[in-house]
TrEMBL record:
<keyword id="KW-0732">Signal</keyword>
<dbReference type="InterPro" id="IPR015202">
    <property type="entry name" value="GO-like_E_set"/>
</dbReference>
<protein>
    <submittedName>
        <fullName>DUF1929 domain-containing protein</fullName>
    </submittedName>
</protein>
<dbReference type="InterPro" id="IPR037293">
    <property type="entry name" value="Gal_Oxidase_central_sf"/>
</dbReference>
<dbReference type="Pfam" id="PF09118">
    <property type="entry name" value="GO-like_E_set"/>
</dbReference>
<feature type="signal peptide">
    <location>
        <begin position="1"/>
        <end position="27"/>
    </location>
</feature>
<dbReference type="InterPro" id="IPR014756">
    <property type="entry name" value="Ig_E-set"/>
</dbReference>
<dbReference type="InterPro" id="IPR006311">
    <property type="entry name" value="TAT_signal"/>
</dbReference>
<feature type="domain" description="Galactose oxidase-like Early set">
    <location>
        <begin position="546"/>
        <end position="641"/>
    </location>
</feature>
<dbReference type="InterPro" id="IPR013783">
    <property type="entry name" value="Ig-like_fold"/>
</dbReference>
<dbReference type="InterPro" id="IPR011043">
    <property type="entry name" value="Gal_Oxase/kelch_b-propeller"/>
</dbReference>
Length: 665
C-alpha cells in the first residue's frame, strides 16, 4: 500500500535518501492530474516499495524556478533536492475532488457498462446484475463458513482519489484498521452490514495511542475450525513497516481474538494452510521498514498448542513457532500453495525465486526459474525485472487434489500464462492482454474467471493516481476446460490495486475493492459508504434449471469417508465437487482449491459421495459442496468440514487425561 502522507519540507538532519525518494515518488504520483504527459522518471524508479510507480509524471512547468530546501540539497545534492521541491509544488497544485465529478464518473461508467454488455449473451458469458454501496473498501476479504463475507481494511485519511487514502506512512492513532461483515442473506442494504471492530492495541511506535489494530496489508488463511488467521499489518512510517500482529477472526462468535506477537514484523506477507492444518507465514517487510523483507518462516499455532479443529477451541494469546528453514524472497506477497504432495510451493515475483518447502522435514528445495517473457528486461528502476501483483491458481486435477499451479497476470506486457507441474514450467495459452492487479477465481465447474486489473499500481493507463482508466481493464476473461480464454462482459468500475473477488455459496461472484476507484465514483462522499460491491452471475446461472442440494447429512467427515447428501433432482446430478472458500488480498489467494468427489452410490433422493483421500489432497477445514449437472451448472452449496478421524479420539483422550490430572489420579 503506497505511503499515505504527502511529504512536508524536510527539516530533519538524519533522513535516508531511500525515505526521501519514496516520499517524493509518492507525491509526484498524487499530483498527476495537474501534470503534463507522463515521462520516464529516472530519479527514483522503484523506491516506493519496489512496486508502486515505475513511471511518475513530469510537470509542464518542470523548468520553472522553485525554492530548494537547503537540508535536502546538503543530503541529496542540488539536482535531486530540486526534484523534491518540484514534487511538493505539484502536490500543492492538486485541488479537491468535487462530488459532481464523482457523480458524473459513476454515471458514465454505468452507461458504458450497459452499452458494452448488451451484446453478451448471458447463457454464454454470464452477466453483471447488482451494484451497491459498502461501508468498507475491502482491501481484504474472506468468505466465512457461515456464508457471510468478512471485509477489512483501514480508516482512510483522505477522500481525494488523487491522493493516497491509506495511512501507511502515518504513525499514531489514525493508523488504524476496520472490519465489517456482509450477510448476503440480508440483501444489499445497510442492515446487511455489521461492523466488527478489531482489537484495540497500543502499537510499539512510541506514540502511546491505542487504536483498532492496523492489520491492513497483512496475510491470511483459514484454520481447520473455520476461523481466519491474520498475520502482520502496518506499524507505520518508513515507506511501509511491518507489524508483528497475530489475530484470529471467529466466524461463529463473530469476534476477533488477539494472539502473541510474531517474532518479526511483516508488511505484505503471505500465509497458507498446510496439510497438517497449521498456517505457514512467509515474507513481508520487517518492522525496520521498506527494503527489509524478512526470510523468517513462522507457523501458527506453534507446537505448544494443538491444531484447532473444533469451533469451540478459541485461539487466544497463542504463539507461533519459527522454522529453521528460511524463505529469502526478495519481494513481498509471494504466492504460496499446498499441493497434493503435502509440500508448500512458494512462487515469488522474481523469476528465480521459486521454491518448494517441506515443513515436516523443515527443508527448502529449488524449483526452475519461471520462463517469463520479460525475464531478461530491466525492471522499472533499471534493476532486476519482476512481476507486479497478479494471479496464481492451483488448477483442478480431480479427486486427489491439485498438482499444478497456473501463474498469470502481474505483467502488463505479457498476456501469457505459466503452468508449474511436475517441477517444470510450461507456457500455456495467453489471455487477451497483459494486466496487473487482477483476480482469477476457480469456479464450481472448474473453469477460471479473471476480473479486475490495471496497468500498474494506482495506474489504469493514464498515469498514477489518475482515476481515468483504460476501460479494457474492466473486461472479464473466461477460461474453459480446454484452457482457452475469451473476453466476457465488463464490470461497473475499473478495479486494480487492492481489488478482490470471491465465489459465493450460491454460485455468484462478488467483486469489490480498490479504494481509489471507489472514492472516485462515490455517489455520496459525505456518507459512511465509501466502498462498493458488484455481483457477477456466471453463465451457468443462465442455462436453465440447476441441480438441487438438500441436506448434507454428515457435514463433518473424515478423509476417504462417505458424505451422504439429499437431492430432489438426483437424475440431474452428474458430478459433485468441493470448492474451498476464498480469502484474498493484493491478487494473492492461497486458499483456492477445487476437488472432484466420486459418486459412490445413488438411492432414491440420496447420494453417497467419497471424501478426498487425505489431508494432502485437501487440507483440513471447511469447503463448499456443489452438485453439478451435465452442463456444469452447480447447485447452491452446502458446507462440509474435512477433519482427520483421529482428532475426535485424541480430543477425548486429552480431556480424560486432564480430568484425571485434576482429580489427582
Amino acid at each position: 500500500m503506497p505511503p499515505g502522507n504527502p511529504p512536508r519540507p524536510v527539516r530533519r538532519g538524519l533522513v535516508t535518501a531511500l525515505s526521501l525518494c519514496a516520499a517524493t515518488a509518492m507525491a509526484a504520483s498524487m499530483a498527476v492530474v495537474s501534470a503534463g504527459p507522463a515521462l520516464a522518471h529516472t530519479g527514483h524508479g522503484d523506491a516506493d516499495h519496489g512496486d508502486a510507480f515505475p513511471y511518475a509524471p513530469a510537470s509542464r512547468a518542470a523548468k520553472a524556478p522553485v525554492a530548494v530546501d537547503p537540508a535536502e540539497a546538503a543530503t541529496l545534492g542540488e539536482e535531486h533536492a530540486e526534484e523534491h521541491a518540484r514534487t511538493r509544488k505539484a502536490l500543492a497544485d492538486v485541488g479537491e475532488y468535487p462530488q459532481s465529478t464523482r457523480t458524473a464518473r459513476l454515471g458514465a461508467l454505468t452507461a458504458s457498462q450497459e452499452k458494452a454488455n448488451a451484446s453478451f449473451d448471458a447463457s454464454e458469458f454470464g452477466r453483471f446484475r447488482e451494484y451497491f454501496p459498502s461501508p468498507d473498501f475491502a482491501a481484504h476479504i474472506a468468505l466465512l463458513p457461515t456464508g457471510k463475507v468478512l471485509l477489512f481494511s483501514f480508516e482512510r485519511i483522505e477522500v481525494n482519489p488523487q491522493k493516497e487514502p491509506a495511512p501507511t506512512d502515518t504513525i499514531g492513532k489514525p493508523n488504524a484498521g476496520r472490519a465489517w461483515i456482509w450477510d448476503p442473506a440480508k440483501g444489499t442494504g445497510a442492515d446487511a452490514f455489521t461492523e466488527k471492530k478489531p482489537p484495540v492495541v497500543n502499537m510499539p511506535d512510541g506514540k502511546n495511542e491505542p487504536r483498532p489494530a492496523p492489520f491492513f496489508c497483512a496475510g491470511h488463511s483459514y484454520l481447520p475450525n473455520g476461523m481466519l488467521g491474520v498475520f502482520g499489518g502496518n506499524l507505520g512510517g518508513n515507506g511501509g513497516s511491518g507489524a508483528k500482529l497475530s489475530l484470529v477472526f471467529d466466524p461463529w462468535a463473530e469476534e476477533w481474538y488477539l494472539n502473541k506477537d510474531m517474532s518479526v514484523g511483516r508488511w505484505y506477507p503471505s500465509v497458507v494452510t498446510g496439510a497438517d492444518g497449521r498456517q505457514v507465514i512467509m515474507s513481508g517487510q520487517s518492522e525496520l521498514g521498506w527494503g527489509t523483507p524478512t526470510p523468517v518462516v513462522e507457523r501458527f499455532p506453534g507446537a505448544a498448542h494443538p491444531v484447532p479443529f473444533d469451533k469451540a477451541v478459541k485461539p487466544i494469546a497463542w504463539g507461533v513457532d519459527k522454522l529453521k528453514t528460511e524463505a529469502p524472497f526478495k519481494w513481498d506477497y509471494p504466492h504460496l500453495f499446498s499441493l497434493r504432495d503435502g509440500k508448500i510451493y512458494g512462487l515469488g515475483r522474481s523469476v528465480d525465486q521459486q521454491w518448494v518447502f517441506d515443513t515436516a522435514a523443515d527443508t527448502r528445495s529449488d524449483l526452475p526459474n519461471r520462463p517469463d517473457v520479460n525475464k531478461s528486461m530491466p525492471g522499472p528502476d533499471g534493476g532486476e525485472w519482476r512481476r507486479n501483483y497478479g494471479s496464481a491458481v492451483p488448477l483442478p486435477a480431480g479427486f486427489r487434489g491439485p498438482d499444478s499451479v497456473l501463474v498469470l497476470g502481474g505483467d502488463r506486457n505479457d498476456p501469457n500464462t505459466y503452468r508449474l507441474a511436475g517441477g517444470k514450467w510450461n507456457t500455456e495459452k495467453p489471455r487477451a492482454f497483459g494486466r496487473t492487479q487482477d483476480d482469477t477465481l476457480l469456479l464450481p465447474n472448474g473453469n477460471l474467471l479473471t476480473v479486475n486489473g490495471a496497468f500498474d499500481i494506482r495506474d489504469y493507463g493514464n498515469g498514477p493516481y489518475n482515476p481515468n482508466a483504460d476501460l479494457k481493464f474492466r473486461q472479464t476473461e473466461l477460461r474453459d476446460e480446454n484452457g482457452d480464454w475469451k473476453l466476457g462482459p465488463v464490470q461497473r468500475l475499473p478495479r486494480g490495486y487492492h481489488s478482490n473477488a470471491l465465489v459465493l455459496p450460491d454460485g455468484r461472484v462478488m467483486i469489490t475493492g480498490d479504494e481509489l476507484q471507489q472514492l472516485a465514483n462515490d455517489p455520496d462522499i459525505t456518507d459512511n459508504n465509501n466502498g462498493s460491491i458488484e455481483i457477477y452471475e456466471p453463465a451457468y446461472l443462465h442455462q436453465g434449471s440447476r441441480p438441487q442440494l438438500g441436506m448434507v447429512l454428515n457435514p463433518t467427515v473424515g478423509y476417504n469417508d462417505r458424505i451422504t447428501v439429499s437431492t430432489s433432482t438426483p437424475g440431474d446430478v452428474t458430478r459433485a465437487v468441493l470448492l474451498a472458500p476464498t480469502t484474498a488480498t493484493h491478487s494473492v489467494n492461497t486458499s483456492q482449491r477445487h476437488l472432484e468427489l466420486r459418486v459412490k452410490s445413488r438411492g432414491g433422493n440420496f447420494l453417497e459421495l467419497q471424501a478426498p483421500p487425505n489431508a494432502a489432497a485437501a487440507p483440513p477445514g471447511h469447503y463448499m459442496l456443489f452438485l453439478l449437472n451435465e452442463e456444469g451448472a452447480p447447485s447452491k452449496a452446502g458446507w462440509v468440514q474435512l477433519k482427520p478421524p483421529t482428532t475426535t479420539a485424541t480430543a477425548a483422550k486429552t480431556k480424560a487425561k486432564a480430568t484425571a490430572t485434576a482429580s489427582g489420579d
